[in-house]
Amino acid sequence: MPPDGPAAASPPDGAATVPAWRRRTEGEQRWWVAVALLVAVALQLLLPATFALHPRYVLPVLELVAVLALVASHPERMSRRTRGVRIASQVLLAVIALNTAVSVGLLVHRITNAGQIRAIELLVGGAEIWLTNAIVFGLWYWEYDRGGPASRALGLADTPDLLFPQLTDPGLAKDWEPNVVDYLFVAYTNSTAFSPTDTLPLSRWAKVLFMLQSAISLVTVALIAARAVNILPGS
């Protein structure tokens, strides 16, 4: 016969009701982030020379070295806050973002100045820039939501900066918390819809990033479409 009293059958105080994002959990694996960064660097390396900052291989090679150094120096799960590693990660993201911003500027300049440009160069280069931009913003969201990956693993933040639909459902929130794939999905849908879809920005910094990403995506897609009408075969 079990012991008398409700306390004997009850779980630890509040353990059954505290959602995963509000309590300490196992940190994310870094390899997903490394894959996203490597894809962004590869896209910049494959970018047509017309839309690349010259000398074109300098920044991508430096970015690649930085990615490998980050993974080698901090290969375990991101469950503790390391100031030096986080600063290095933010600097790397800033460099990739700067390189992408230059490519966007070159793309806009080439299209608006009616320079000679091949259809394949425009479509492939524009797609690479658009996708790189989505990856960069996804990683920015991942880096800053609720203080970053280590802070999320420690359950330090009381309120989310990005409200994922799973966080609003007590049944799902019990064992679910976002990882880098979820943030990349948010960035991808924001780039395609030019507005939030299923995940809402709550913090002002998140709203500013959403607006900036949507604006960049809208300008890129609109200009590529307008220019492609004039240069594609049969147009």
Give a structural overview.
- By secondary structure, this protein is mainly α.
- The protein has one domain.
- It is built from eight helices and two strands.
- Strands 1-2 form a two-stranded antiparallel ribbon.
- The protein is globular, with a radius of gyration of 22 Å.
- 32% of the residues are buried.
- The N terminus is likely disordered.
Q: Can you count the helices? A: 8
Task: Supply Rg.
Answer: 22 Å
Rounded to the nearest angstrom, the distance between the terminal CA atoms is: 83 Å
Strand content: under 5%
Shape: globular
Residue windows where pLDDT falls under 50 for at least 5 positions:
1-14
Taking the sheet with the most strands, its summary is: 2 strands, antiparallel
Describe the structure using short key phrases:
235 residues, mainly alpha, two-stranded antiparallel ribbon, 2 strands, 60% helix, 2% strand, globular
Strand and helix map with partners:
Layout: H1 31-46, H2 58-73, H3 83-112, H4 119-144, H5 149-154, E1 162-163, H6 170-173, H7 180-193, E2 200-201, H8 204-231
Antiparallel strand pairs: 1-2
Helix pairs in contact: 1-2, 1-4, 2-3, 3-4, 3-8, 4-7, 4-8, 7-8
TL;DR of this structure?
With 235 residues, the chain is an all-alpha fold. The chain has helices at residues 31-46, 58-73, 83-112, 119-144, 149-154, 170-173, 180-193, 204-231; strands spanning 162-163, 200-201. Helix 1 (31-46) packs antiparallel against helix 2, helix 2 packs antiparallel against helix 3 (83-112) and helix 4 (119-144) packs antiparallel against helix 8 (204-231).
